[in-house]
């Protein structure tokens, strides 16, 4: 006989909880008060916010995080993006931009290439991007060049004017001061990058680091 009042009480509590959940879901009780954008340099924060479709005052529980991320990811400079809620009132948009390592000049402009070998945009190359010349119509040759350049640090890349891909995908670097450094084929790139760091500020007009354990100069 005592179970009936208890059951009614449980039902009442559940009903109140469900009603509260419905109210919070339908009405913007939990509002977006701030939207924080991080990692956006080539793409403006204003563009990221506009593409997200999220605005202050929106219901935090009902924002379309996956849709916002998909729209932002369509920007050429964006390699990845995550959109997440932080209670009680913040949306965090974290952007990962592409790292440009090289570019190829065509009739329509400079085709920027990221560290994964993707040509993603025609634009003015940043200072750290190396021009790839030579067998640029050969996709494998361009990929070999990108693999080599990607192992070189940004400060050293800024001193390289171009990388020429020769026959059999052998590569030669030309510095802005006119000196040349023969890289060789696409192998032992990490070791060659370390050798490059060592020789680039030393005297010598023509260096050969194709065998990084036996660097030569002439």
From TrEMBL:
Coarse class of the primary localization is membrane
Location comes to: Membrane
Q: Which GO terms describe its cellular component?
A: plasma membrane
Biological process according to GO: cell division
For the keyword Cell cycle, the answer is: yes
Give the transmembrane region(s).
7-27
Tree of life domain = Bacteria
Q: Could you tell me which residue ranges the POTRA domain spans?
A: 30-98
What keywords sit in the KW lines?
Cell cycle, Cell division, Cell membrane, Membrane, Transmembrane, Transmembrane helix
Identify this protein by name: FtsQ-type POTRA domain-containing protein
Originating organism: Corynebacterium propinquum
